[in-house]
Amino acid sequence: MQLIDRRFFVVVLCALAAPLGCAGRVVTRGAQHSETECRKTTVAVLGAGVAGITAAQALSNASVSDFLIVDRNDYIGGRVAHTNFGSKPDGTPYVIELGANWVQGLGSEGGPENPIWTLAKKYGLNNTYSNYSSILTYDGAGVADFSDLFETFDNAYTTVEQDAGYVLTNNLQDTSMRAGFSVAGWKPKKDMRAQALEWWEWDWETAWAPEQSGLLFGVAGYNLTYYQFSDENNFVWDQRGFNTFVVGEAHEFLEENDPRLLLETTVTTISYGPDGVIVQLQDGGCIEAEYAITTFSVGVLQNNVVEFDPPLPRWKCEAIEQFQMGTYTKIFLQFNETFWDSNTEFFLYADDKSRGYYPVWQSLAAPGFMQDSNIIFVTVVDDQSYRAEQQSDEETKAEVMAVLRTMFPDKEIPDPIDFHYPRWSTEEWAYGSYSNWPVGMTLEKHQNLRANVDRLWFAGEATSAQYYGFLHGAWFEGRDVGMRIAGLLGQDGNHECDGNSTVGCGQMVDYKILHGSTFADEYNVENGWLASSFLTYGYEE
Length: 541
Known about the structure:
Radius of gyration: 24 Å
Strand content: 15-25%
Distance between the termini: 48 Å
Largest sheet: 8 strands, mixed
Shape: globular
Number of strands: 22
Low-confidence stretches: 1-20, 24-34, 493-502
CATH architecture of the domain at 6-77 and 243-323 and 438-537: 3-Layer(bba) Sandwich
Mean pLDDT: 91
Number of helices: 15
C-alpha cells in the first residue's frame, strides 16, 4: 500500500485557503497525524447502513478483504432503525421502526426485482401490503367524506406526468411540482381538504412540499421505482427489526466479532488526496487507507459534522448544499383498546388551519399487521417535523391527542399507555430521514454529488439519480462504488475497467461547468442513469 505524503496536505491547504470548502474553515491536522500510528487498510467504509454494508460486500465479493467499516452507532443498519415500544399481552415489548419501514416497489413478472424485496424474502421478513384504498377521511368536524378528491388529483397527476416527460425528452427548463400541479389544474389553495389530499399524495412520499420539489426528477424518482418494479408498497413489521436483512448480509462476509467492523466509532476529520485518505477518529485514533467511501447522509454533509482536509471543492459543495434532506417523523401511540375502525388501515385528517398538521394516521392493529397491538401512529414531515421534534413528548402528545379527539368526537378516548417518536432532524449522524430532488437541480449537478474527489468516494440513497430517497437507491450506490474501487484495485475479475460495465467503472465524471438543463444524451450510465428515459414515464421507445 502506498503511504500518503503528508506534505501534500499542507501544500494543498495553503493553496486553497482562500476558496473555503463546505466546512467554512480550513483545518490543519497534519502534525497530529504524524504523531499517531494509524491503522492501515486498503478501503475505509464510513457508515454501516445499507450503502456501507453493500459497498463492503461488493469489495468482499471481488476478493478485496482488507477493509474497515466504521460507524458511530452500536448497531448495523443506519437509518434502518427500530426500538422497543409498548407491551404485548405477555408483557414483552413490540418492535417498531423509527426509520425506513417499507419495501417500495417489489417486482413484476418478467421484469426486474427490487433488491430490497429480494433480501426481504431471503431473510423472511414479516411484511404486509399497504392498501392505500383502505382509508377514511376526517376534518375538524369529525368524519368527512372527501374521497372524490382522489380521482381529481389522479387526473391532474396524469397530466403532470406527461408534462415532466415532455421536459425530459425535449431538454426543457425544469420547474417545481407546485407549478406542474397548477398548470395541470390542481390548485388546492385554501381548500384544506384538498391540501390534506395533496399531502397524502405528495409530501408523505417525498417529505417535502411541492413548492420545494423539482418537477422532472420528482416524477422520474417516483416512476422509476413504481414503473420498473411494481406499484406495491409492503410495510415491514418484523419483530426482529427491518435491519435484519442488513445484519444478515453483513454476516455473510464478516465473522462474529470481526475486527474489521468498528461500531461506536466516530469520524471527526477526513484528509484526502490523490495518494490516499486519512480518517481521524474522536477517540484519538486514525485510519490510513488507499480509498475511503463516505456514506454519510446529505444532512450530515450539510451540517459540517465531519471536517474535510482540504475542504471539498466548490463544485462538490454546491451540489451538497443544493440537494435536500427531508425529515419524516412517525409518532407512535399505544392504547388499552382499539377505538378506531380496526379493519381500516389509514385515516386522513384535514386540519382547518394548518397544512400537514398530523394528517396521516396508520393503524398497526389492522388485519395482517400487528393485530391486537392497539398501536396507531401519525406521520409529519418538513416544518411540522422540525416543530414537533423540538418539542417535549408531553407537548406533542397533547397536540396529537387533541387531533384524535377531533377526529372521533363521539368516542371517549383515553390517554395512551405508551408514546414515542424519533427526532431525526437533531440526530448528528443523520440530520434528517432521506433526500429529495430540489427545484433547479440538473443531472449534471447531481452527478457532482455522486462524484469522487481524488480517492474519497461517496455513496448513499442521496447519490442515486434514479432512486434517491429509497432504500434500494442506497443498495445500488453502495454496490456501484464498491465495484468501482475493486476495479481500480484490479481485484474484480467480473468487472473489468473497460467502460462497458452496466454500473460504470473507475473514476466518476464530474462537471466543473454546469449547463442550465439536462441534455438527452446525459441520461446514461456515466451519470448514474441506467434505465431508458422513456420508461420513466410509462411508455417505451
